[in-house]
Amino acid sequence: MRFVIVTAFSLLALSAQSVDSGALDRSVSPCQNFYQFACGTWMAHNPIPPDRSRWGRFDELQEQNSAILRDILEKATGQLGDFYAACMDTATIQRKGTTVLKPELDRIAAIADKMSIAGELVQLHRIGVPALFNFDSGQDFKNSSQMIAEVDQGGLGLPDRDYYLKTDARSVDIRTKYQAHVEKMFQLLGDSPERAKDNAATVMQIETGLAKGSLERVARRDPVNIYHKMTVKELISLNPDFNWTRYFAEMQTPQFDQLNIAVPTFFRQLEEQLVLTSLDRWKIYLRWHLVHAKAPVLPDAFVEENFNFYGRTLTGAKELRPRWKRCVQMADEQLGDALGKAYVERTFGAEGKDRTLRMVQAIEKAMGEEIQQLDWMTPETKKQALVKLHAVTNKIGYPDKWRDYSSVKIERDDAYANVARATEFEVHRQVAKIGKPTDREEWEMTTPTVNAYYQPLLNSINFPAGILQPPFFDKRADEATNFGAAGAVVGHELTHGFDDMGSQFDEKGDLRNWWTPADAKEFAKREQCIADEYSAFTVAGDVHLNGKLTLGENTADNGGVRLALMALLGNLAGSAGQKIDGFTPEQRLFLGFAQIWCENTTEEALRLRAATDPHSPGKYRVNGVLQNMPEFGKAFSCQAGQPMVSKQPCRVW
Questions:
Q1: Per residue in 444-502, pLDDT tens?
Q2: pLDDT-derived band of residue 11, with 50, 70 and 90 as boundaries?
Q3: Smallest Cα–Cα separation from 170: which of 603, 650, 478, 651?
Q4: Helix or strand (DSSP H, E) at 140
Q5: Measured CA distances, 154 to 117, 209, 451 (Å)
Q6: Where are the alpha helices (DSSP H) in 46-157?
Q7: DSSP per-residue string spanning 471-517
Q8: pLDDT category of residue 9 using cuts at 50, 70 and 90
């Protein structure tokens, strides 16, 4: 797993059409519940498909893109065609069974002593099995022009450390079901029921120990908490019972003396686990993580059992997604640039790139004006903020240079090995960056991805072609609706550069304090207002959102819509603008924003997201933002005391 800081808009869709009147629920006042007003009829007519845990407007674009990618893959020759064909060849996968795992299982069984675990862990990490911890390259937080080695916490099978440590009834139930799932997977590997049960208990014991040393998600949002540049000798002193010298040598890393140990307490805890846990138990743990990571390319019984827990239990999905969709996703993950290049040739041209850039420039201009007129920021900090804003790099559509996969061996009848070799190629590519200058042109998302993101270490905003497709982003659309959807996204990503995390990085992407003490204090006070506001929102009955976990995304949502409105009003040049479908330009902007977040979500998925997702659910991404905006209340003639008019509105940007 790559260790990077990326703040993304998360599976968003751009509804760049005119307002969808058919989605509106006119029985509800926009001043009472704007989300219901904007999306109520859409939600009533769009139930969650059985193979999903959430269905929203972005899924419509995802489905469209998946169909395009499927067509590309089915017609492709060479690597892409062979990779997809092997993934779809379930008869061969069934016939091979678990024999594909045998070489790795034999190596695990042959581990002679605990210090030899490092050698096998190299093999597992190379093929994408994230056991014990994560190792990668990454930008040096305080010298972002250079790549350094990084080690970070990992090795868990549940979504978060808190799933192991919380004592409420829901958490206990999830742990019980997880252990039963692990037990079933061991039985599928051929273990007796009794042995499988004991093995599952061992996995739970080891993973709980690792969870105790893991840093919680909210704390990880502060980059200071995950940046500890230390020497290799210091890493060895933290964790002497793991053979780091052998691990780095066999990973074939470039020579290095210093690295970022993201969470030192985790590696002290790992040391304790290594000392207290027998070698046989570690072998059980490694067997589990191998089968867990490789379940998608194993026979149907493994796929179904994997879905039973991670899909049905954790998210509430009722059916496994069709095989072709899973294989399309796998091809995008493993050969992303090859597939992305074919996707761009079919769907995206220079006109789309230019159109997006013009909108980005309009939003950037609005943000510059916003910074200059802030009444709570001193001139000294404003100057630094403008320097950072003007240094933002805009990446639109696709990378200038496509990745070359020619060295990756792909065979038409070996899905397991294809994924392993493609993963090994990527692991080697990332490790080889250690000690080299940062490639500032590289993307963190594949081109067909329906998403956008800001990368603070590069100070860049990134909009893959996958999200810039009609009818969701269309030059023929009404400008106000376009700014409400696409413009809010651009503003969202720009604001990430100045949220609680992004604000700690300067124009180069270095972790550096460029705030005066007075401005930093005022900024923290305004951020706390947003954190408190969203912490009061509940889902699935009684589950509160974590306002600290979602703080960056909520700040970006609030800033993004405000910037989009400023840019739109600037384009209108003082003109009131005409009504369309009975709505003014300002009203259409707010509706355009709200309707990108129309969605239905299972209760299980809402609980999971509340615990792990830095993004708020659609309802609160809409109502939470708009209740803070007097401009919204004015546009819809809302009165003080109505739910969509906050008594104490929060505002950062």
A1: 999 999 899 999 999 999 999 998 876 566 666 788 988 999 899 999 999 999 999 99
A2: very low
A3: 603
A4: strand 133-140
A5: 16, 12, 25
A6: 57-75, 78-88, 90-96, 102-109, 117-126
A7: TTS-TTS-HHHHIIIIIHHHHHHHHHTTSTTGGGB-TTS-B---S-H
A8: low
Which residue in the list 120, 478, 479, 493 is annotated as catalytic? 493
- Mean pLDDT value across residues 72-76: 97
Domain ranges of the chain: 9-50+351-394+467-635, 114-299
Residue 314's nearest CA partner among 607, 651, 7 is 607
Beta-carbon neighbour count of residue 2 at 10 Å? Answer: 14
Quick one: three-class SS letters along 598-641? CEEECHHHHHHHHHHCCCCCHHHHHHHHHCCCHHHHHHCCCCCC
Token pair recorded at residue 107: 């190596």
The dihedral built from the CA positions of residue 189, 192, 194 and 195, taken in this order, carries a sign that is negative
User: For 114-299, which CATH class?
Assistant: mainly alpha
Q: How much is the pLDDT for 36?
A: 98
| Angle of CA points 322, 470, 50, to nearest 5° | 25
The helix or strand, by DSSP H or E, that contains position 566, with its residue range, turns out to be helix 551-572
Residues 388 and 381: beta-carbon distance below 8 Å? no
- CA 331/CA 306 separation, integer angstroms: 20
Closest listed residue to residue 618, CA positions, set 46, 221, 160, 18 = 46
In three-state secondary structure terms, 119 is: helix
Give the integer Cα–Cα distance in Å for 30 and 638: 8
Instruction: Record the tokens describing residue 445, joined without a space.
Output: 């998302």
Burial class (CB in 10 A: 0-12, 13-18, 19+), 113: exposed
Q: Is 603 a catalytic residue?
A: no
The residue type found at 95 is: R
**pTM strictly above 0.85:** yes
Query: Pairing relation of β-strands 143-153 and 258-261?
Result: parallel
**What letter would DSSP give residue 23?**
G
Q: Which of 444, 510, 557, 613 is flagged as catalytic? A: 557
Q: How much is the pLDDT for 154?
A: 98
Per the structure block, which two tokens stand in for 631? Answer: 């401009």
pLDDT digits (tens, 9 = 90+) for 308-351: 999 999 999 999 999 999 999 999 999 999 999 999 988 886 66
The C-alpha atoms of residue 63 and residue 99 are separated, in whole angstroms, by 34
CATH of the domain spanning 9-50+351-394+467-635, picked from 3.40.366.10, 3.30.300.30, 3.40.390.10, 2.10.109.10: 3.40.390.10
Query: Mind giving me the DSSP string for 296-355?
Result: GGS-HHHHHHHHIIIIIIHH---SPPPHHHHHHHHHHHHSHHHHHHHHHHHH--HHHHHH
Q: Which one-letter DSSP state was computed for residue 384?
A: H
Strand order of the β-sheet with 258-261 is 133-140, 143-153, 258-261, 229-231
State both tokens at 20: 């969808």
What's the CA gap between 255 and 240, in Å, rounded?
Answer: 20
Structure tokens at 64: 């469209």
377: tokens are 């920021």
The CA angle 302-96-204, to the nearest 5 degrees, is: 30
Query: What are the start-end ranges of the E strands in 173-240?
Result: 229-231
- In the predicted structure, residue 2 carries a pLDDT above the cut 80: no
The confidence band for 12, taking pLDDT boundaries of 50, 70 and 90, is: very low
Question: What is the DSSP annotation of 537-549?
Answer: -EETTTEEP-TTT
Contact predicate 358/102, CB 8 Å: no
